[in-house]
Design brief:
This protein has 223 residues and is mainly alpha-helical. It has 2 domains: 4-147, Ribonuclease iii, N-terminal Endonuclease Domain, Chain A (Orthogonal Bundle), CATH 1.10.1520; 156-220, Double Stranded RNA Binding Domain (2-Layer Sandwich). The chain contains 10 helices and 3 strands; from the N terminus they run αααααααααβββα. It is globular. The relative contact order is 0.14.
Length: 223
């Protein structure tokens, strides 16, 4: 599969089984029936590995901070917009296998697709090489983002609400767009609207999807 060597160089690991990395780089549109063989399962585990490693990192780096301060830091670092920026900066979009029609529509540039792909390769790295390898990669690619967090960032939903209030706009409106997946592993897509601006976030819980949508919309709005 095209891009495997580049992906392994990015991850700093030579895979014992390259098939798992190929799966991590396969968008649902290029997979088999019902997404079989796509990166969705690896994104699921990569999301958990990422959260664990970043939480561990924050505890280490900010030993005097409480949960109320660490939580927003974690949410900001693992948000879809933040992960998409990391994926784009490291050339991950070019490595994704996407159906020709979706490629023409620019799916490789979508924030959720890029963020999910980054989580998927983290999941693949964890399964093939273990937690230490995943930790090394995550700390390397997220190092700049963490170093820029001089103070705990505001919760994205709170920040978006404050943005709207300062401009005398209606409060953000959150709407469920889609719910997929089994009951034990649901996936929510939620759209947030403020005035004429809107964005959609996706995650494994409604709250996380709302946060992702708010963070994405904030990244598109003027300061």
């Amino acid at each position: 599969m095209k891009g495997l060597d580049e992906a392994q160089a990015l991850l700093g690991h030579r895979f014992g089984d390259e098939r798992i990395l190929a799966e991590a780089l396969t968008h649902r549109s290029a997979a088999g029936a019902r997404g079989a063989g796509s990166n969705e399962r690896l994104e699921f585990i990569g999301d958990r590995v990422l959260g664990l490693i970043v939480a561990e990192w924050l505890i280490e780096k900010f030993p005097a901070e409480r949960e109320g301060e660490l939580g927003p830091r974690l949410a900001a670092l693992v948000s879809k917009p933040a992960l998409a920026q990391v994926a784009e900066a490291n050339g991950l979009a070019a490595l994704l296998a996407v159906a020709p029609g979706e490629a023409k529509r620019g799916v490789r540039g979508q924030a959720t697709v890029l963020a999910d792909a980054l989580e998927a390769i983290i999941g693949a790295l964890y399964l093939d090489a273990g937690l230490d390898a995943a930790r090394s990669f995550i700390r390397r690619v997220l190092g700049d983002a963490l170093s820029q967090q001089f103070t705990p960032p505001k919760d994205p939903k709170t920040a978006l609400q404050e943005w709207a209030l300062k401009r005398a706009l209606p409060l953000p409106l959150y709407q469920l767009v889609e719910q997929t997946g089994p009951s034990h592993a649901p996936h929510f897509s939620i759209r947030v609207t403020v005035g004429d601006a809107a964005a959609t976030g996706a995650a494994g819980s409604k709250r996380a999807a709302e946060q992702a949508a708010a963070a994405l919309l904030l990244s598109q709005l003027p300061p």
